[in-house]
Amino acid sequence: MGQAFARMKFSILALMAAVLAVASPQMALAQDVAEAEVAAPADAAESAGGYDRLAPTEGKGMPTSAEDDMLKSMTFQDQYTQDGIYALGMHDYILMPVITVISIFVLGLLLYAGWRFRLAANPVPSKTTHNTLIEVIWTIVPVIILVVIAVPSITLLARQYETPPADAITIKAVGYQWYWGYEYPDHDVEVISNMLDESEALASGEPHQLAVDNRMVVPVGVPLRIQTTAADVIHAFAVPSLWFKQDAVPGRLNERMLVIDEPGVYYGQCSELCGALHGYMPIAVEAVPMEEFEAWVLSQNGTIPSAEEVAEVDADAAPADETAEAPAA
C-alpha cells in the first residue's frame, strides 16, 4: 500500500513537471508580447525621420471637467475651424437668446394664467373661445422666429456640404471593432490607432481614454478630404472641437471637407453605439504645419506627391466612389 502511494505521488509530481515545462515557454512568450505592446507607443512616438509628436495643450481640443470649470463643461468646446466658429456663434448669439426669451415668456404666461384665472378669482369661468388679434400674433411671431433661425441654419448646412477642391489631401478613416485605421492614398501611408491605457496616457500628458498610440496627422490650414467607412458595423467619426461628425458605414464612402485653423491635438470618439467596446475607440487628430506633415509622411515610409499628381488621383477615384455608393443609396 505504501509503495502504491509512493508511485502515485511520483506520477503526480512528474505530471506537474511536464505541465510546467510546456507552459513556461508560452508564459515567457506572452510576457514578451505584453512588453512589446507596452513599448509600442513609445517606439511610435520616436519614429524614423526625426518627426516628434506634438504635445497637447491643456484645455485645447479636449473636454473640460466640471472640477476645472463648471460653466465650460456644460457647453461646446472652443472651435478651431471656420464652420465650427460660425456654428458656435449661431448657437450663442441666435439660438440661445431665442430659446431663453421664449421659455421665460411661456413660463410667465403659465404663471399669469394660473393666478389670474384661478377658481377663487373666477368662480364663473369665461366662455370666450376666440380672439382674432391674439391668434394673428401667435401665428405671425413664430413665423418670424423660424425665418430668423432658418437663414443662418441653411447657410451652415451649405458650408458643411462644400465640396473639397481637387488638390485637397485625402484621408480615409476606417472604423473597426474597436479601433480606427487611417489611410492616406495620396501619400501611400496607412496607420492603425488604438487607445493607450491610463498609465501611458498620463505619462504622455494626455487625457485618459482619449489618447492613442498613432494619431491621425494632418496639415493645418489646407483643405482635407475626410472619407469615412467601416469594416464591420456602423461607427461615427466625431471630433467636437473641429465641428466634425460623419458616419462610417460599411459598404459606403462618406466624404466631407475639413480645414483646421491652428496647430494642435484635437480629441474625439466614435459617436455611434457599435458594440461592447464602443467607449474605447478614441480619435486624436494632430494638426501640424505642412513641413512637419511631410516629415511625418517620410517617417512612415510614405511619398510626397505633387499637386498635379494628387488632382489626377482624385479625379480617377471619383467615378469609382460614386459607383460604390449607388447601391447603398
Describe this structure in words.
This protein has 329 residues and is α+β, with helices and mostly antiparallel strands. 46% of the residues lie in helices and 18% in strands. It folds into two domains: 82-160, Helix Hairpins, CATH 1.10.287.90; 169-328, Sandwich (Immunoglobulin-like), CATH 2.60.40.420. It has seven helices and ten strands. It has a five-stranded mixed sheet with strand order 3-2-1-5-8, with no helix packed on it. It is elongated. Mean pLDDT is 83; it is low at 1-6, 18-48 and 319-329.
The CATH topology of the largest domain comes to Immunoglobulin-like
Query: Largest sheet at a glance?
Result: 5 strands, mixed
CATH architecture of the largest domain: Sandwich
Radius of gyration from the alpha-carbon trace, in angstroms? 29 Å
H/I helix tally = 7
Terminal CA distance:
81 Å
Topology:
Elements: H1 2-45, H2 70-73, H3 82-116, H4 132-160, E1 169-176, E2 179-184, E3 189-193, H5 198-203, E4 216-219, E5 224-230, E6 235-239, E7 244-248, E8 254-258, E9 264-270, E10 282-288, H6 290-299, H7 307-328
Parallel strand pairs: 1-5, 4-10
Antiparallel strand pairs: 1-2, 2-3, 5-8, 6-7, 6-9, 9-10
Helix pairs in contact: 3-4
